[in-house]
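Morning - 2-acetamido-2-deoxy-beta-D-glucopyranose inputs below, output right after.
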Amino acid sequence: MLHTLHQHSTALLFLLSLWLTSSHGKCVFDEVQQSITVTRAEESTVKNRSTGSWAAKQSRTNIQRHPAVARGSASSQHLQVQRQMERAMMIAMSPIRIHTWIAQESSALSEVDRERLAVAVNHTVSIISSLLSVRHTAGPLLLSRDINKYCKFIWRNVSATNYNRCGRANSSYKNETCLSVTIPDDHLRGCAVFHHPDAPDRTELRHEGAGLNNTDFLLYVHIQNSHRCTTQPSMLAYAAHCQSDPLGRPLAGTVVICRDRLRHQNYRHDSTVQLLLHELLHVLGFSRTLFNTWRDCSHNIKGGGKCSPHGQVTNLDEEGQMRIYTPSVSHVLQEHLNSTDTTLGAPLENLDVDSAGLSSHWEARVLQGSIMSATLAEPSGVQIDQITLAALQDTGWYSVNLSRAQSLVWGQGEGSLFGSLPTCHDNMSLYFCTGSGLGCHYLHVHKAECVTDLYLEGCRIYKPLENKSECWKEKNQPGGVGWSGEIYHSDSRCFFSNLSKEVDPTLV
Ligand SMILES: *[C@@H]1O[C@H](CO)[C@@H](O)[C@H](O)[C@H]1NC(C)=O
Ligand SMILES: *[C@@H]1O[C@H](CO)[C@@H](O)[C@H](O)[C@H]1NC(C)=O
Ligand SMILES: *[C@@H]1O[C@H](CO)[C@@H](O)[C@H](O)[C@H]1NC(C)=O
Ligand SMILES: *[C@@H]1O[C@H](CO)[C@@H](O)[C@H](O)[C@H]1NC(C)=O
Ligand SMILES: *[C@@H]1O[C@H](CO)[C@@H](O)[C@H](O)[C@H]1NC(C)=O
Ligand SMILES: *[C@@H]1O[C@H](CO)[C@@H](O)[C@H](O)[C@H]1NC(C)=O
Ligand SMILES: [Zn+2]
């Protein structure tokens, strides 16, 4: 007699490809950016290069809180204007030219490591220039000297000819720095002392440098084993911007690459590029010190190139969640979540915030998988998403080709409450889980476990298992004939189900 044995069991079936596990430490960008002074070039130094170079005036950036709250209203009319403006700007703007410069104080690298670094940096820079366009800098890029450093006394009489110019040199002035890098004199404007408030006679302190041709942004790469590198276990790189143009657009920054990480046997190109991208997007504008300097160019399609400051773009919502309210960000988030709330702002991380409650990362519960969330997953699980690109568009400094965004999978069509603390415990959610059982990561290519982390604040999601989570790795296939019917293959995907497997008992 032939019996058929029905085995009911909970199993994981696997069918497509990719992977993910958390591999990086905490992003220290905010802490690093906070620690440095940014030098801002003033209008005159750019417009009046031939005559005004020696008269370069600088001011320290002054982060102000504007009382007015600019809540973006993404009405369709507004968006139409926005689109027209984007088209108009596309014409005037060209892909950003990022010049990378290896700092001379960098540690020596082996041939292999140097190659690794060059390939990763070039790849990152080419991704950024395919996404962001700017009005090209006319003439060579020259960085500014900080008058508060080279000068001991500044003429302060508004009606004097030499108003705001240096009256007495600071004899202990040495150089300008960008994070840990000494900026070569050749990249800097000159500076001079004016002996009288109204007379033209002056003494040159430093000559004008040659500057860098065909450059819109200067990225110093400093390879070292800094204190941050050695004290933070998985630190690979960190960055900050140190100079900006008169409109606030960052002009120069430094990325520190932790030398020993390049030598690591587990070095991976894709995770390095991902991290460099994350840090560079901070440096180029997605930074809490810059949010309130973003500019609104939407009412300016008729030309003239003048954009007005948005004012304050961040504000707390009714639940106490800090959000960014700018037109493009609001619009793409509504599309993503399929929300009709036209005043919806994109939530910022509410951990690791400054005294004003700001973070330079997106809220992990709502924008999990975004390149600008605080914890980066495996590269294939991270998107250069449309909300991040919209934010860069809303800086007013860039024209962004939004059609190049990798659309965010997390939370698609889930509505404006998605990811809020009360709703994440809903046990019917497609994205959140309850308990601590096994399941599948939301992109379905990893076996996963229901867990939480610091940034999820008690919400739980399926994160890849520590070992053998990848369903596309054939070597993860358990030995012998699997009772569960699991197949590990490059085409496998993870599904959580209770399978029935029919077994011929005559063969048992
Ligand atoms: C400021 O400069 C103007 C013009 O040089 C001069 O007439 C005036 O007395 C100065 N004021 C002060 C307070 O020094
Ligand atoms: C934007 O990107 C898309 C896709 O890469 C490309 O086809 C299109 O030409 C780009 N548009 C502009 C204005 O550069
Ligand atoms: C968006 O929401 C509307 C109702 O609010 C619904 O009819 C529509 O199917 C939703 N679209 C998507 C893509 O979820
Ligand atoms: C899911 O939630 C509902 C109501 O919140 C509850 O009655 C049910 O027991 C929960 N199911 C599980 C499996 O936790
Ligand atoms: C994963 O593998 C490592 C090394 O084989 C082992 O030390 C660790 O305990 C494993 N973790 C789990 C959760 O099985
Ligand atoms: C599969 O699981 C669901 C709920 O987890 C249960 O209701 C159903 O009876 C199970 N099916 C079989 C065939 O065991
Ligand atoms: Zn970061």
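Note: Residues 111-131 form the longest helix (21 residues).

O.
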